[in-house]
Amino acid sequence: MSTPAVAIIYTSNGPVETALSALHHTLPVPIGTQVLAETVCSPINPSDVRQVTGANPFKQKATTKLGTDHPVTVGGNEGLFRVLQVGKDSPLKAGDLCIPRVPGLGTWRTHILCDQTDLVCVPSSLTVEQAATIGVNPLTAYQLLTQFVDLQKGNWVLQNGGNSAVGKLITQMARIMGVNTISVVREREDFESVAEELRDLGATQVITDTQNQDLTFSVAEWIGNSSVRIAFNCVGGTSASALVKKLSQGGTLVTYGALNGADLVIPFATPEFVFKGIVATGYWLTANIMRDPELKIKTLEKVYRYYQQGLLKAPSFSKARCSFEDFAHCYQ
Ligand SMILES: NC(=O)c1ccc[n+]([C@@H]2O[C@H](COP(=O)([O-])OP(=O)(O)OC[C@H]3O[C@@H](n4cnc5c(N)ncnc54)[C@H](OP(=O)(O)O)[C@@H]3O)[C@@H](O)[C@H]2O)c1
Q: Which top-level group of life is the source organism from (predicted)?
């Protein structure tokens, strides 16, 4: 028996209001190693929207398997599926909860028919929110903290975008690892309440970007004999340069985003680079997963443990309910 399904698709890049449409189709009974699953939750991450507009360098694969005569792409990278039916050669079983194994699977849909290797099962002990959002921001935070330097207890980490979902996850995971954090957030009227929230999550210190960029503002007293081994930059421009200036000898600047759209301004050929041996590099989760899908599984296992031990709060997000005929506002 075939299953009626709806997917939010695009055929070419453009603004979400015009590029996206709803495709009603039917999915056949799974055969061989195939799996038919229903969607439990499909988040909209800003990077998903950039895929639709074409601003993200990663291109999702288009397909004619949904019955169209031209290739279409299903939007979305994150999501939680519940297995309904499996082919006779699939090790999965009805009721299993799964997330996409690799980027670009397309999660903005009511149902999916795919090969079992496209999915990875997640523990049923996770909440829907934890499971549906585990594949991007928590993995990013964990890999940023573990992939570049061998952080030791008592070391310091510095980050801008401290109030972002990734920033809050970095803060929480650093606390679990015994690593101190200085989170930089934008100037705001409610700075104290944001700082309080971040300190509750584990931030050791919270400063404004004005303090970050003030050359007379020093973090030396906080750091003492320890060191700022790594700085995470998701903002760009002079906010990033200011992070470099606070790094200790041999420190590393990792850029993973560009929220203010400004080019990276790194004080090259100044003492920060010449005498301190600063390293500047970039990070992209998608490239990591494409290069080494097993690394995703290993990272997921670390994050499951943090959730299961009650050590980590899932990123907060806003919920939107909309019909397939009126979904565009969900993506804005
Ligand atoms: N490289 C990778 O693999 C990877 C993976 C995941 C995420 N990311 C990147 O990580 C960043 C954070 O993602 P997210 O999902 O955690 O974001 P999010 O939760 O939506 O938070 C966005 C944050 O950006 C801040 N912000 C917005 N515009 C800004 C500006 N002009 N200057 C400074 N800060 C600004 C906001 O600060 P306020 O609180 O002050 O409003 C907010 O804290 C994004 O750049 C995203 O693309 C990269």
A: Eukaryota
